[in-house]
Amino acid sequence: MRNKVGVLIESDFYEPEIEYYSKCFKLAGLEVHFLTRLWGNAELTFKGHEERKPLKVNESFENVNLKEYAAVIVPAGYVADRLRYTEDVKKLPPACEFLKKAFADKKIIKGIICHGAWLMAPIAEVLKGRRMVVHNNLLGDAKLMGINYVDEDVVVDGDLVTARTGGEHVAFAQRIISLLNCGEILNFLNNRIDILEEKIKILEQKECTAERRLQNISTSTGGKKMAKVLIIATNYGSWAEELQAPWDACKKAGFEVTLATPQGKKPLPFKISVDPNFVDPVQNVKTNPEWVCNRCKELVDGEEWANPKKFTEVNMDDYDAIVLTGGPGANLDMANCWELHQLIMRAYKTGKIVAALCYAVSTLVFLRDPENDYKSIIYGKKITAHPRAWDFYGPGMKMVYEVYGGDKDLATDVVTPGFQWPIEDLVRDAVGPNGACIARINANRENPQVYYDHPFITGTSVESSIAYGDKIVEVLKKLGK
């Protein structure tokens, strides 16, 4: 039985990626083997690129039996560049010889992430015509190698899995694990044709691949695919359109939509967010079109939002996406909410879509991954943020959380000195040096700002609410094909 995963290694590796591989593959019941060229030494110590963390390696890829390996990975960083050295220019680098043999064995899953594609240049013929993604800096290399470039963060082409940057290492590794799990199940079925029908049912129920989890779309009448979306809202004052726009977009798309709030009570919008005459005092622009205000009041006064579930009453495994909606109240009861964090983490770990708009992005900032040195789950990702320049902040500034449609049970009398924190600054810190914070102060209704960096969809603020809802629908439909 093939139960080994070989990870090629050299100096200047990307620490979070290598640390994650050490844990995730073991949890999946696989042996992790870090392989290098030892140059006659019994052991070598390599250091990471950013934190210079040491890693001792005592296995050479020149001596392994590939028939024992289920997967071979070329990681991010400068590992590939260092390993493609050859002292005899008339011969292939030993690491390339090793990979050429791995590519010849279709039973081995090959994983190449970020700059790992460097190591493939000397054996480009094995990649010609293959669907894959490379780091943006390697687009020219991809063209020269004859790769069929796909502009997605993680791409699967049979026994080949590729990812754009080291920041995608979680989704990348989980996709490999899922493919390996599927392979085992399918081999079992092929050997037990007498129980094929029963085992196929098990296969469908097991969510055996990240891609299948993403595509776990329930079937409605008429045979149309229908995604199940969990929409999250604050009980301390939503910004009306930031809930209404994604809600209406998902409903119009035919998705099955469930609303959840911290208290399980109807989410009420800020009064100023349903006032068509409200002028943002910082940007000096009217933020609320009259038709938006009318539609939001219709939703608040009607029954659609009347009976949301509590966070503790929903199971993320029942949904294909979790969609966080914004408003200053999101900082009060969503940003550091343990129950909500559990739902998001489950979605993140199972490869489902995680979306957040405006100040709801704070929830992603504060959600930390214990399997990645407690870095934010958006570490290494490209995430939009409400610009610092737009924050309600200054002398005498205060934020009154007065809501529309409230009664004694649903109203709130909270007052804060402007917004609680500058989300742009927090996002810049949370994404780290390999990520990016997108906080455009020129975003507007005609030119909104929404970004998809799998599995995250994020939007800047109210002006991007419609684009945010549309992007969620677009991505879910694409993943459901």
Q: Can you tell me about this structure?
A:
This protein is α/β, with parallel strands linked by helices and 481 residues long. The protein has 2 domains: 4-191, Class I glutamine amidotransferase (GATase) domain (Rossmann fold); 219-479, Rossmann fold. Helix content is 30%, strand content 19%. It has a 7-stranded mixed beta sheet, with helices on both faces. A 7-stranded mixed beta sheet has the order 16-15-14-17-18-26-25. The chain has a two-stranded antiparallel sheet with strand order 3-4. Strand 3 (44-47) and strand 4 form a beta hairpin. Helix 1 (15-27) packs parallel to helix 5, helix 5 packs antiparallel against helix 6 and helix 8 (240-252) packs parallel to helix 14 (465-479). Mean pLDDT is 86; it is low at 184-197 and 203-223.
Q: TL;DR of this structure?
A:
The protein has helices spanning 15-27, 79-83, 94-104, 139-145, 169-191, 196-205, 210-214, 240-252, 290-301, 330-333, 338-349, 361-366, 423-431, 465-479, and strands at residues 4-8, 31-36, 44-47, 54-57, 59-60, 69-74, 109-113, 131-132, 148-149, 154-157, 160-163, 218-219, 225-226, 228-232, 256-261, 309-310, 321-324, 353-357, 368-369, 375-376, 382-384, 399-400, 415-416, 436-438, 450-453, 456-459. It is an alpha/beta fold. Strand 3 (44-47) and strand 4 form a beta hairpin.
Helix and strand topology:
Blueprint: E1 4-8, H1 15-27, E2 31-36, E3 44-47, E4 54-57, E5 59-60, E6 69-74, H2 79-83, H3 94-104, E7 109-113, E8 131-132, H4 139-145, E9 148-149, E10 154-157, E11 160-163, H5 169-191, H6 196-205, H7 210-214, E12 218-219, E13 225-226, E14 228-232, H8 240-252, E15 256-261, H9 290-301, E16 309-310, E17 321-324, H10 330-333, H11 338-349, E18 353-357, H12 361-366, E19 368-369, E20 375-376, E21 382-384, E22 399-400, E23 415-416, H13 423-431, E24 436-438, E25 450-453, E26 456-459, H14 465-479
Helix pairs in contact: 1-5, 5-6, 8-14
